[in-house]
Amino acid sequence: MARRCFDPGQGLFQHRRLAWQRRHAKSKTSYVLTSEETMSRSIARLTGMSLAAATAVVSLNAHAKVSAEEAAKLGSELTPLGAEQAGNSAGTIPAWDGGYHNPDWPEGKRFENPWPDDKPKFEITKSNMSQYAANLSEGQKAILEKYDTYKIPVYETRRSAANPQYIYDATKENATRAELTNDGETLVNAAIGAPFPIPKSGKEIIWNHRTRYRGPSLVRYNVQAAVQTSGAFSLFKLKEDVRFNYTEKGMTPDGLNNVLLYFLQSIEEPPRQAGQILLVHETADQVKEPRRAWLYNPGQRRLRRAPNVAYDNPGTGSDGLRTNDQLDTFNGATDRYTWKLVGKKEMYIPYNAYELHSDDNEYDDIIKPGHIDQDLTRYELHRVWVVDATVKDGTSHIYDRRTFYVDEDTWQIALVDIYDKRGQLWRVQEAHAMNFYRYPATAQIAGTVYDLLANRYLVQEMNNEEDEHIAEDFDEGYFAPGNVKKLARK
């Protein structure tokens, strides 16, 4: 596809701004523009713009909070997280009625389908997909076209999404105070709730996904398989400990200490790689401080910094079928892409994936040649935000363009269409998610990445034959690099 022309009012501004910020990152003075005037003068000098034009460029790169009048819509016209509360005019999407919450569900018990009697209303297949094309992504159409065995079973839409009240309260506070600076790489004045429940830009929507409530800090098993064309696969088993720092109850913007979450991942299988540990401190301001990552190698018995755990470097155990920034559909810095908010549309997306999560299913039941067993999946019609991301000039990524479809009720990215440098559709990513209604919080329980060119796919985040996710009250010290060495010796 055609690349965008270099605009000295944007590209040079971004390059100079990032360089200037990194030089001043260790300074005690704030570089999040107290400096709007200083940066405007610098841009004017560097580009030959008038001071007024340079000031306009600066303001375009700061994403503003909304007014109190707009924020008042939250909890009335809009849900507390910013979705449209009303259903659609056709009656195929119902109004949001608070979602589903069952606080009495026992900790550690496998989450079960609250609607066990639901049956598919219809199935979308290669032969009938033209009837539903307006509500499908290009990636979904490509998979349907490629595999005669692939289908999309469509169920009644149940807007099950819910969060605790303290998440809603914080979201309303964030709406009138949260901002993005440093060309959208720095989130300021936000904590706990969605920072931008009434988004005005693509980056704001991606930040909502990155900071969404996924439940309390937890221990989970993440089993993944890179599946060959024949359907053959080997399992890769990961144990992951996570502290969601941003959404901790009582958190404040200052209390974050620039960390959104802490993540400790240990390989349990295959045996030849068992004992390897990855530690990540996901920084909120990746201009000020890039993601902190360390790898422990049991053979060397050493913990080393791992700056390559980011962007398009291959993800752990993925056999090259996903990049690091594809875990959780998207994570990490957004600075290699230009993000465009396309709009909102109704689409058939994976939802309420309780059957796929059931421990009645073994991994052999789920993993099939070409794709997972679609009889175990559930799709529903929901409104999604559409965000298009295109690689910036002067940066690089193996994915030249990605189109994200983000569920309005949860801020969970549900689908991604992924294009290569020739503009050809390359990979398709799906997030099969469900409401962990004890807490309540929505999170992925199986993610797929289909490689249309290699005729292979990756399925990850399964735990059907493992223990259910459990809440764990980790303190920050658990994720200190020194503690990794202690854990490795156990």
Question: What report would you give on this structure?
Answer:
- This is DUF1329 domain-containing protein.
- Pfam families: DUF1329.
- InterPro entries: DUF1329.
- The protein has ten helices and 18 strands.
- The strands form three sheets. Strands 5, 6, 7, 8, 9, 10, 11, 12, 13, 14, 15, 16, 17 and 18 form a 14-stranded antiparallel β-sheet that branches. The chain has a two-stranded antiparallel sheet with strand order 1-2.
- Helix content is 18%, strand content 27%.
- It is of the alpha+beta class and 490 residues long.
- It is globular and about 60 Å long.
- Among the domains are: 11-61, no CATH class; 165-242 and 309-489, outer membrane lipoprotein receptor (LolB), chain A.
- It has helices at 11-23, 36-47, 51-60, 68-71, 138-146, 165-175, 202-211, 354-357, 363-366, 481-489; strands spanning 122-124, 152-154, 179-181, 186-188, 218-227, 235-243, 259-269, 277-283, 292-297, 302-305, 337-350, 379-391, 401-407, 413-419, 425-436, 441-451, 456-462, 470-471.
Q: Architecture of the domain at 165-242 and 309-489, according to CATH? A: Clam
Provide the gyration radius in Å. Answer: 22 Å
Task: Name the shape in a single word.
Answer: globular
- Count of helical regions: 10
- Pairing-aware structural class of the strands and helices? alpha+beta
- Beta content: 25-35%
User: What does the average pLDDT come to?
Assistant: 89
Instruction: Give the termini separation.
Output: 52 Å
